[in-house]
Amino acid sequence: MALAIGCRAKPGKSRDNKTGSWRVFKPVFDKEKCTKCGLCMTLCPEGCIHETDEEFVEPDYTYCKGCGICAEECPGEGIAMLQEEK
Amino acid sequence: MLEIVEGSHAVAEAVKLCRPQVVSAYPITPQTHIVEALADMVANCQLDADYITVENELSALSACIGASAAGSRVYSATTSQGLALMFEVCFNAAGMRLPIVMTIANRALGAPLSIWNDQQDSISLRDSGWLQFYAEDNQEATDLHFIAYKVCEDHSVLLPAMVCFDGFILSHVYEPVDMLSQEDVDRYLPPFNPYQRLDAADPISFGMYATPDYYHEFRYEIDNAAKRAKEVIQKAGKEFGTMFGRDYSALVEGYRLDDAETAIVAMGSICGTIKDAIDEMRAEGRKVGLLKIRVFRPFPSEEIAQALSNVKRVAVLDKDISLGAKGAVAIEVRDALYGSVTPVKGYVLGLGGRDVRKKDIKEIVSLVEKGVGDQFFGLRRELL
């Protein structure tokens, strides 16, 4: 595919760009410790943490860069950052 | 019509005739008279453009980027520290492929502070992707603006351009300039036809980020566009010549070069002094000629190699210095002549407004004949 002149792009490019591949540490959520306070959803800079059907929260690993802000901020210390195995 | 006019006002008049829709600039010596004149024209309804006043040059060129992306013909002007402040924005304008035209009234860069002429400012942005034209006199400075818009806006180029003319030496000098009429310019330069434009109904972003998988190729494409500009400049310059009698199709221009043994290579207003010095040296039987570089980007390597193929030696004059190396023009002329046995010597001179006189040119010719060069010329040894 030819490059768009001047690197010009239609909206929605951040959806195409799967930033999950950047991740070195992966946030793993502990259902037992989660109080559903929603702080992780609010503070995630990628906006990729969402509620599941079971009223639990989980990140979208397609876009989660593994920054660790959710784990740092979780009041119940319910998120562990585990090294990715690649 | 021939008018006696100050260089800056001639440029402002030429810009007006190009019908820019947006002008954004910040005054700085010795460029101020240009944008001052344009501001007057907008205020007096002689120019139907938005004049965006800003707090500094970084904002001026940023405003130009937005306006150009929105589909307007755009103009700015600056010099020296102002251009340095635009550094980041210059690269973005080229990368976004926006055909902005900006006049540079060449001036030295601080420190030490100097408001006087050399060409360090625009030379320092030679890697930015902007086309660079250098004018010898105010007629050329004026005409190059029409050509610059025509070339930049060509869809096979789509790059911004700097039209450079020496601060004070040209910008503040009154000399006769043959000014085109509005009808002439309208015949030569059609309205801006943007390749793409910002449109709220069909949103698009310019200059998005490129990962290592793509960035390399984007730079290659910008370089290709700059190289394609060569042919577009030749065509636009020839068309200008056919219509108005002044042919700018050549990227480099020889003066008494055909049978010359010593060639001087230079850019800008110094070429006028060199031509006079050459006439005097020719009268004494010295076979000296000039090769004037009018277009520094894209760099006309093949044209230079061709023009200098029969000379015995070359002296390159630089009003700039790549500190720790040599003058930029000398470096590139030597590169153009790589593989040839012709010696090329560089002379850095006239920095920060130091006058260059005919006797200096003659002295340089004597030096290059002796094989002495690659030096700062005209140093005041008593200060060192």
Brief overview:
By secondary structure, chain A is of the alpha+beta class.
Give structural notes.
The complex is a heterodimer of chains A (86) and B (384). Chain A has 86 residues and is α+β, with helices and mostly antiparallel strands. Chain A has a domain at 24-83: Alpha-Beta Plaits, CATH 3.30.70. Chain A has 3 helices and 4 strands; from the N terminus they run αβαββαβ. A two-stranded antiparallel sheet of chain A has the order 1-4. In chain A, a hairpin with a 5-residue loop joins β2 and β3. The longest helix of chain A is centred in the middle third of the chain and has 5 residues, at 39-43. The radius of gyration of chain A is 15 Å and the shape is elongated. The two termini of chain A are 29 Å apart. Chain B is α/β, with parallel strands linked by helices and 384 residues long. Chain B has 2 domains: 2-244, Rossmann fold; 252-383, Rossmann fold (3-Layer(aba) Sandwich), CATH 3.40.50.920. Helices cover 39% and strands 18% of the residues of chain B. Chain B has 13 helices and 15 strands. Chain B has helices at 7-17, 32-43, 57-69, 80-85, 87-95, 120-123, 138-152, 182-188, 215-244, 270-283, 301-307, 328-336, 358-369, and strands at residues 2-6, 22-25, 50-53, 74-78, 101-106, 131-134, 161-166, 174-178, 252-255, 262-266, 288-293, 295-297, 313-318, 344-348, 375-376. In chain B, the strands form 3 sheets. Chain B has a 7-stranded mixed sheet with strand order 3-2-4-5-7-6-12, with helices on both faces. In chain B, α2 (32-43) links the parallel β2 (22-25) and β3. In chain B, α1 (7-17) packs parallel to α7 (138-152). Chain B is globular. The interface between A and B is medium-sized, with 10 and 20 residues.
